[in-house]
Structures are given as C-alpha cells and as structure tokens.
Automatic annotation (TrEMBL):
Enzyme class, broadest EC rank: transferase
Name of the protein described by the UniProt record: Acetylornithine transaminase
Keyword GTP-binding: no
Entry GO MF terms: identical protein binding; N2-acetyl-L-ornithine:2-oxoglutarate 5-aminotransferase activity; pyridoxal phosphate binding
Keyword Nuclease included in the entry's annotation: no
One biological process term in Gene Ontology: L-arginine biosynthetic process
Domain of life per record: Bacteria
Length: 394
C-alpha cells in the first residue's frame, strides 16, 4: 500500500465494517495523556470534549491506570451472585456524595441509558400510570430511555415505545398543569447537555420538588452528564439545595470504564424488589475499582472546586474574545455551551479541530465544551489561543 492508501484506509474500514448509526469519525486516535490525545499521524489535540464528559481525569491518569491494573490482576468479574470490596466501597461513597445517606440504596448498570431504565422501572413500581419528562430532554437510546427522551426525531422510527410518558415544556406552569396524583415520576436533566448545554429555568428544580412532593410523584434527576463534579458540585442539584427521590449517573464516574448507577433516596429505596431488575456486568469489580480511583482522586485533588474555578475562567475567556459569531455562553463549571449565530457552530468545530482543539458542535447553534476536570493554566491558555483562532477562521 502507498502512504496515501494507508492514511485513508481506516476511514474505509470504518465505513465498511461499523454499523452506519454514527457519522464518519473525525480522526483515528491512538493515544492520550492528560488533556491531550494523538492521532495516527502524530498530531496532538487538546481534548476539550473528554469523550463527552466522560474522561474526568483526562487520559491515562496514573491513579486510574494503577487501580485498573491492580484490579485486573485480582478479579475482573464475578456476577451479582457475589459481592466485591470495590462494589461495596463505591456504593457507600455514592450514598455519601449524593447526600442520600443511610436510607440511600445503589443500583449498578453499565451506561447512562441503563441507569435511566432502572429509574423507569422504579417509577412503574409506584403503581401509577403517568410519567412526566421534558421536551428536548435526552435520557438515552434504549427503548425505555428513548421513551423518556423528548426528541420526536429520535423516537419516531422506533415506535411503539413503552407507554405512559408525556413530554411537557420546561416551565413550572407546564408542570403545575400536568401533575396529578396519578403521576409516578418527573425525570429531568438539570442542564440539557445533548440539547446544547441548556440549563433549566432558575428555580425550576425547587418548584418541581415541591410539586412532586405534594402529588406523591418521584423526582428523578438525570445527572448522567452533569454529575460527579462536572458542574462545580458533586451533583448539579446540590447547587439548588433540593433532595430528589433518585439520581442517575454514568459518564464521568469511572474514567471511561463503562459504569452507570442509580442512587435512591428515602422511601424510594424500598420500591424495587428482589428479582425486579439486574445486569450481568453491572457493578463488577473492574468498573467499580476504576470508579473508586476516579472519585477518590477528584476528592483528594479538589477537582470539584477546580471545575467551578476553571469553568468561570473558560467562560470569561470565551466572552472576552468578543466574536460576532458568539451569541451567549451557557452552563455551569466545566459543562459549557457556546451559543453561536445560526449555522456557525459546525464550521467553528471543524476549524478548532484543524487548530488542534477538540470541541463539540452539537447542533447548528451550539458548541459543547466539557474538558477533563484536571484542566490547569496550560490547558486553559492553549484552549483560549486555539478557540480564538477557530472563531477567527470561521
Ligand atoms: C449521555 C446521556 C445519557 C445516555 O447515556 P449512555 O451511556 O449513552 O447510555 C442519558 N442522559 C443524559 C443526560 C446523558 O447525557
């Protein structure tokens, strides 16, 4: 093969061998370290997407490498007929950092969608028929999670979906109108990540807590993207001082090793009965050991505080660029949405990639930025330079 053939080969192989459900991939990545990744041609990129808010400690973090190496040597998997020390440690830790405390309980799956499937079953166990979710919300792609996802374009081809889910506007008035004592749960993302990092209206979560409590419905908060320190608190709902009945989490929990979890609070902890739900891989020793390493390091190095501080710094830097293409800067901590003039986002994303910066033009008017929680001065500086260059080139 000629050099040119070798270079294009991986794109052809991807198109030939992988299911066509994803867009053609942007680069072939072969290695990562900290906030940087390298492609097969040796080009280095500053990774400000972090595997979609997954790589909390960046790439190849020594603490994660050591924990995974050690656990692989001991036990990778045992099934849920048995318990493991790392699973017990993680469950205890999640009860603590969510604030669920003593009455909390933890269910482990392998992804965000699976965490929300567990929440769906939790809701069914109330015996109430109706479930409320928000228009434009994203809760995952499996059939139950897809039923919760408020995006008709994603749902349409796959109907019929599990019944009983109604999508309402993200306003307190819409919730007041819809909620009755036949509602099993309201599920919300505190910041709609897949919709371009769009926060709930101020005060919404507190009002939702009051209204769900009054009608006896569960309030389930989907923190799959916002959770585990990303927004400058362990969980975004903690900024609002509300206590949910359940919180789902996944992305940033285990440094990229697949793991999802649902943590229940108070009485909701008693809803699922023996035999109600399960997962072969869920909560296995490898994934939970990786999560303990990630969350332990976040705590040790105060990366929750770092997320809050660096987020402010990055938002201020983008605003200071004064680009006519940027209409607003949204989000909290290190989950940032840059609003652009209509249609500008894809070109900015492409120009950034050319400039050696990975950001995510998630729709025609939004760029999502979700760097590892370890970002420091060097990375913020490199981002500022490259993002400004991308805006200038677009
Ligand atoms: C990513 C995401 C999901 C789905 O998680 P998967 O691991 O892709 O199944 C669900 N909810 C939210 C808010 C997400 O960001």
């Amino acid at each position: 093969m000629t050099d040119a053939a070798v270079e294009t080969d991986w794109r052809q192989r991807h198109a030939h061998d992988l299911m066509a459900s994803y867009a053609p991939p942007l680069r072939l990545l072969v290695r990562g370290e900290g906030c940087w990744v390298w492609d097969d041609e040796g080009t280095r990129y500053l990774d400000f997407l972090g595997g979609i808010a997954v790589n909390s400690l960046g790439h190849a973090h020594p603490v994660v490498v050591a924990a995974v190496e050690d656990q692989v040597r001991r036990l990778v998997h045992i099934s849920n007929y048995f318990a493991s020390p790392s699973q017990l440690e993680l469950a205890e830790r999640l009860k603590r950092i969510t604030g669920a405390g003593d009455a909390g309980r933890v269910y482990f799956g392998n992804s965000g969608a699976e965490a929300n499937e567990a929440a769906f079953k939790l809701a069914r166990r109330t015996g109430r028929p109706r479930i409320l979710a928000l228009k434009n919300a994203f809760h995952g792609r499996t059939m139950g999670a897809l039923a919760l996802t408020g995006k008709p374009a994603l749902q349409g081809p796959f109907e019929p979906l599990p019944a009983g889910v109604e999508h309402i506007d993200s306003t307190v008035e819409a919730l007041e109108q819809a909620i009755r004592d036949d509602v099993a749960m309201l599920i919300v993302e505190p910041i709609k990540g897949e919709t371009g990092v769009v926060p709930l209206p101020a005060g919404y979560l507190r009002a939702a807590r009051e209204l769900t409590e009054r009608s006896g419905a569960l309030l389930v908060i989907d923190e799959i993207q916002t959770g585990l320190g990303r927004t400058g608190a362990w969980f975004d709902f903690q900024h609002e001082g509300v206590v949910p009945d359940a919180v789902t989490m996944a992305k940033g929990i285990a440094g990229g090793v697949p793991l999802g979890a649902m943590v229940t609070f108070g009485a909701a902890s008693g809803l699922l009965q023996r035999g109600d739900h399960g997962s072969t891989f869920g909560g296995n020793p490898l994934a939970t050991a990786a999560a303990n390493a990630v969350l332990g390091e976040i705590e040790r190095a105060d990366l929750v505080g770092n997320a809050a501080r660096r987020g402010e710094q990055i938002r201020a830097a983008v605003e200071a660029m004064g680009s006519p293409l940027v209409t607003e800067v949204r989000g909290r901590g290190l989950l940032i949405g840059v609003g652009t003039t209509d249609g500008a986002a894809p070109a900015i994303g492409a120009a950034a990639l050319e400039a050696g910066l990975i950001v995510n033009p998630i729709n025609p008017t939004s760029i999502r930025i979700a760097p590892p929680l370890i970002v420091g001065d060097e990375e913020v500086e490199a981002f500022t330079e490259r993002f400004a260059a991308a805006l200038a080139a677009s």
